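re: the backbone from monday

yeah here it is again, tokenized this time
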């Protein structure tokens, strides 16, 4: 079972521990049943003249053992489930963090979101059910052993009836599983619609035609989910009723039919009927929890599949990465070629082959039209994308799994779709004066600041947030800064300040700057300018008219 496999990741003793507690609880309850039956038999034979203290005492001791084992089992299972989910969630998160960037971009957000939140919730919310089902299963095994000891005939009748019941149940289960598969699909569509609405709420508000059409699409998704949900629930109820009815049929066979055909059976019919009645509780729990378990199992399968897929696209990075030998001196590209993995070849885009060298302290601009490959190039330069062929070297050492992490650590970035973290993760030990200096330099002191390792607020205008992102990059104090169209949402005044004052100041401090830009008024600020044209790179004179409008 994938669920058990998933929960015991990194804990090989889990199954053994649960097995021992389960066996204690199961045997304990079967022994209780045995004692009740023995006492009843005695009373039937001899009448009640005095209390059988020995049996009563054994009953109490067994009841205590059973109670303790039960509490241990249920709470251990619940705890293990939470621990297991915690481990899985953390594992998935760390796998996402080390997955090949170009490949992970293709994964749908809903798939990652589902596995880390929804699927883990499916399992954890029902952890008590899973525990109860496990314990009921063990109890059934123990009671069946008791029945076997009482009468082999009764045992086989029960096995046959239960066997047929299970077969019907499994057949129904298959159909149910199919419905649950469908249910998950429509849930994913609904999730995508909700995130679409959230991301596009402005656009939806702004045009009633779009709003109406979107509402129709959303209602359809919601109706589909409700429809398939209802079908699945009906199947569950049918399955449950069928499971419990099978037991009443079993009871009827044992009480009414078997004694007629078997002499030896008569004596034990009362005991066996009690045992069968004793099984109804656990059976209904198992039947009820089947659908929950099925759901948890499917969640486990999805999470494990995701984990496997993430493992397949794991970036080949050595755990014990080497530090780079010298201080950064230069980065060079030799015949570097890149293509996107999911790209339809009919509309292919190929970057390269590129030869390039960037020296320490240089201020380099990358220009080119929309779709020319600038952002793609800087993702290779920053080590996010790995070239399909060719070599990227730093200080004449070719980058490889050993050095990738150390290489990325050299580069601070502000991508065009950069994310601004409110908390300054990784830069908590910055000098306060430094932070203050840059916040004033970027003219943000009146709207925000840094306190206790986080920005006081990041609820700012788009241009202001971009400034904060650059401040973060500067405070990270790394030798290279890479910027993708940083100034695109700055006002003319600040754009000028950025190109004429801030970039030269950073260069003065020794930072190497690689900036993608469309701002042709300021091309002269750069030391060198590289120009991309449909994936082909050339070095241009700073005054070259190409790239200007
Ligand atoms: N995630 C992706 N998957 C597949 N193809 C992509 C992806 N991102 C970009 N491309 C393709 O790669 C080409 C270069 O895109 P890139 O983003 O590098 O252009 P750019 O020069 O940065 O353009 P812009 O000035 O518009 O930012 C485009 O033709 C685009 O269709
Ligand atoms: Mg771009």
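seq for it, each position gets an aa:
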């Amino acid at each position: 079972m994938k669920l058990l496999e998933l929960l015991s990741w990194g804990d090989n003793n889990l199954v053994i521990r649960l097995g021992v507690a389960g066996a204690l609880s199961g045997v304990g309850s079967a022994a209780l049943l045995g004692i009740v039956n023995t006492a009843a038999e005695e009373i039937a034979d001899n009448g009640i003249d005095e209390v059988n203290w020995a049996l009563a005492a054994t009953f109490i001791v067994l009841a205590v053992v059973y109670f303790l084992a039960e509490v241990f089992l249920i709470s251990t299972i619940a705890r293990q489930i939470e621990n297991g989910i915690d481990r899985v969630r953390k594992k998935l998160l760390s796998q996402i963090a080390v997955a090949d960037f170009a490949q992970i971009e293709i994964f749908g957000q809903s798939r990652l979101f589902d596995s880390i939140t929804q699927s883990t919730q499916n399992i954890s919310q029902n952890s008590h059910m899973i525990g109860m089902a496990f314990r009921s299963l063990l109890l059934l095994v123990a009671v069946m052993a008791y029945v076997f000891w009482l009468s082999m005939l009764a045992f086989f009748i029960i096995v046959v009836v239960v066997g047929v019941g299970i077969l019907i149940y499994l057949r129904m289960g298959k159909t149910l599983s199919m419905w649950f598969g469908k249910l998950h699909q429509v849930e994913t569509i609904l999730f995508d619609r909700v995130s679409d609405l959230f991301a596009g709420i402005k656009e939806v508000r702004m045009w009633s035609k779009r709003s109406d059409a979107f509402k129709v699409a959303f209602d359809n998704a919601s109706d589909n989910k409700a429809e398939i949900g209802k079908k699945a629930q009906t199947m569950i109820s049918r399955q449950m009723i069928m499971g419990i009815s099978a037991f009443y049929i079993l009871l009827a066979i044992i009480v009414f039919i078997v004694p007629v055909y078997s002499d030896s059976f008569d004596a034990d019919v009362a005991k066996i009927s009690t045992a069968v009645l004793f099984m109804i509780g656990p059976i209904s729990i198992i039947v009820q929890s089947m659908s929950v378990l099925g759901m948890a199992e499917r969640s486990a399968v999805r999470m494990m599949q995701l984990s496997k897929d993430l493992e397949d696209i794991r970036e080949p990075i050595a755990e014990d990465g080497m530090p780079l030998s010298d201080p950064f001196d230069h980065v060079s590209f030799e015949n570097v070629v890149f293509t996107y993995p999911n790209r339809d070849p009919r509309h292919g885009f190929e970057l390269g082959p590129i030869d390039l060298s960037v020296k320490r302290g240089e201020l380099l601009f990358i220009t080119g039209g929309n779709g020319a490959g600038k952002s793609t190039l800087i993702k290779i330069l920053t080590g996010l994308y790995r070239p399909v062929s060719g070599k990227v070297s730093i200080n004449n050492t070719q980058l490889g799994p050993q050095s990738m992490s150390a290489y990325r650590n050299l580069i601070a970035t502000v991508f065009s779709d950069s994310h601004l973290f409110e908390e300054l993760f990784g830069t908590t030990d910055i000098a306060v004066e430094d932070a203050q200096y840059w916040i004033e330099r970027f003219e943000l002191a009146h709207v925000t600041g840094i306190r206790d390792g986080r920005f006081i607020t990041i609820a700012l205008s788009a241009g202001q947030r971009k400034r904060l992102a650059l401040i973060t990059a500067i405070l990270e104090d790394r030798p290279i800064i890479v910027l993708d169209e940083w100034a695109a949402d700055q006002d003319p005044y600040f754009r000028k300040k950025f190109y004429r004052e801030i970039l030269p100041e950073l260069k003065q401090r020794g930072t190497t700057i690689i900036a993608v830009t469309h701002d042709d008024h300021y091309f002269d600020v750069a030391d060198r300018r590289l120009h991309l044209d449909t994936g082909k790179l050339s070095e241009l004179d700073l005054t070259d008219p190409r790239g200007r409008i």
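Residues 105, 340, 342-343, 349, 368, 370-376 surround adenosine-5'-triphosphate (ligand 1) (CB under 6 Å). The radius of gyration is 34 Å.
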